[in-house]
Amino acid sequence: MNKKHAMAREARMQEKHFTPVWDIGVSVLVLIVATLLGYLFYIVGFTEANIITVYILGIVILSVITTNRFYSLVASVASVLIFNFFFTVPRFTFRFVDPGYYVTFLIMFFASFLTGTLASRLKENAAQSAQAAFRTKILLETNQLLQKESEEKDIFAATAGQLTKLLKKDIVMYPAKKGVLQEPVLYLTGEDTVDFLLEENERMTAEWTFRNNKHAGATTETRADAKCLYLAIRVNEHVYGVVGIFINERPLDSFENSILLAILGECALAIENIKNEKEKEEAAILAKNEQLRANLLRAISHDLRTPLTSISGNASNLMSNYQVLDDESRTQIFTDIYDDSMWLINLVENLLAVTRIEEGRVCFNRTAELMDEVIAEALKHVDRKSKDHIIRVHSEREFILAQIDAKLIVQVLINIVDNAIKYTPQGSLIEICTRSRGSLVEVSVSDNGPGIPDEHKPHIFDMFYSGANKVADSRRSLGLGLSLCKSIITAHGGTIEVKDHQPKGTTFTFTLPVGEVEIHE
Prior knowledge:
Order of helices and strands: HHHHHEEEHEEEHHHEHEEHEEHEE
Number of helices: 12
Radius of gyration: 44 Å
Distance between the termini: 67 Å
Structural class: alpha+beta
Low-confidence stretches: 1-18, 469-476
Largest sheet: 6 strands, antiparallel
Oligomer: single chain
Strand content: 5-15%
Shape: elongated
Helix content: 55-70%
């Protein structure tokens, strides 16, 4: 046992020896003061009843300030003798002339003793009530603290803190993981390390408690040579850990033990709730993944059938009727095959990109890029039907830089512009505008087509959302393009939104972090 605890034990022993001396001294002092005050009453001419009242008051005071009822009992006897010696005739002797004093002394003794006993009981009841209130407060605080924690280690730490506050004893915690006790954690009431709490015998006692789900150690019949009392943190037969309480010279009383068990029960329930929440989250994620997989399979089976059927049909037509077809017909068939194959390629690219971004497997290569160059690169790869539309590019300034992964932002622009091309009539105007907004670059893509209904706008960026027919990102599509755009923009730290374009049409607006040019000298 270390020096700190040896000194603490010695201090407690000295306190135990000092307490009787204090009580005796206080008792003597109170009787002296009562006698002096009684003598003053005697000189003034007060009756003996007043003097007796002074001694009774002194006994009441002694009952409150002393630690044992024995002193009030002795003081009651002493007060009768002192009253007889100083205030009955003949004075300054223990003899008395009037036989009625027998009754006086008897009444005085019982009055002093009864009032002293009642005062002691009131003091004890008040102390017990205060202690019960304190312990109840600790229990309520524990419940509130544990409800706030979301990690097992934090729950163990909060529980140990409350136990040290309640019991004023050193605590050792053994968390359990996968059916095995982990390394112990000490929670001390002082600053010094209590190495003996980590000895092999203590560890073996904690292991026994964990395996058998029963109390062991100090104050029990099992492994009583241990210095700590070990209890399981459990819910029914499931043990989440073991707590050890250093007993030293003062064992736990029944009320402390009941509060202790209640706190450990709260701890176990909090840990079980966390595990249940994690299991629910995992089940929800699994259900979501299953739903996404089902949506993907359903969409693939429905939407991919049309282009694949068209490609195979056109190829079969070419093989069977190539010689009889004129050049214009053959060119149209080749064009249809090319359009359908490019649609499939873009679909697969979007699907793979969404999967990589959602799983966090995309490594961003961010550099400062001129937005005019990024937009120009994107327009080179948009749908070939763009020639049937008017596309204009505007920039607020000549040079606007953004800190981006250029390839991914090009993909965003391609998807948004392709949507505008597909779902607006021929000859429609598509405008791409770039402007600076403080630390952000804002890019908007507007068209003057039929627009998007308000009920579809909150879901337009959801994966696999297709809405009604001829709505952006829906026709012959898996609903991945705009979902991919949102994932890319969010990963860049920006935002993307859709709103109406006045007087008609739709505007997609997204923001990107502004870029800075590094000059190396």
